[in-house]
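Students often ask what a holo structure prediction actually looks like on paper. The answer is less mysterious than it sounds. You provide the chain, you provide the ligand, and the output is a string of discrete structure tokens encoding the 3D arrangement of the protein together with manganese (II) ion.
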Amino acid sequence: MRTAVTLSQVPEAAAGPFVFHEPLAQGFALARETGFDDVELFLPGPNHVSVDEIKALADKHGLGIAAVGTGAGMVKHGLSLTDPSLDKRVAALDFIEQMIAFGGQLGAPAILGSMQGKHGGEVSKDQALEWLADALRIAGKTAAKYNVPFIYEPLNRYETNLINRLTDGAEFIEAHSLENIVLLADLFHMNIEETDLAASIRTAGKHVGHVHYADSNRRAMGFGHTNPAPIVAALKEIGYTGHLSAEIFPLPDPKTAAQQTIKSIRSLL
Ligand code: LER
Ligand code: MN
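The corresponding structure tokens follow.
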């Protein structure tokens, strides 16, 4: 398993669960300094910074790109894959496909989190899930062109009413025969939704492709009440070799949150 830390460049997400919000050059340096292998990028969109610039920063600091988020499509542009408007759904998928291409050129998968949207009003749950499956089928194919998977993230009930649990995500992938889609086990969302985090990871098994390593209160692991030992043991058991990525609040300050994450992971790996 590899360690990663989140770098955000999205002003609208200044209060979000990202460790470093400094300009990218500084963010990469801080990630290296605090001991991470890789970084996870949360960018305003596919044209905010060039792929070459990211490659240069990654090389300079000896860091890889773990993943790229797509949430700015929602927080900046209000786009979701399950919007009642066809135009907005098309724009949402287009944004995601551009982020897949951006990340793909860096060898990094893109993540679908908040852009999955919600059902409600004129959109039934069945309809929303059908749109979600259609979009995941396309995104999986696009990602395959770059030899990376596409990451789907079940979110807690306050953020989506589509799929909240890891095992429901695994069933969804299988029921729709979705290819090249992996699941993101965000331990913060899972703390709200799962009965037993380690058991859900074992059940979802081979579908788990990324981990947001957060404590119960979305602070660095060790600053809340989640016990990470059985979770990391379950990840080892399923043969997980992906990232433990700190998508957490920068509390009490970014460096301390980053250092605590590394300390927790080192004690378990
Ligand atoms: C994104 O990774 C996530 O976990 C969502 O909660 C973002 O709001
Ligand atoms: Mn997450």
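The beta strands are 2-8, 38-42, 64-69, 110-112, 150-152, 181-186, 208-212, 243-246.
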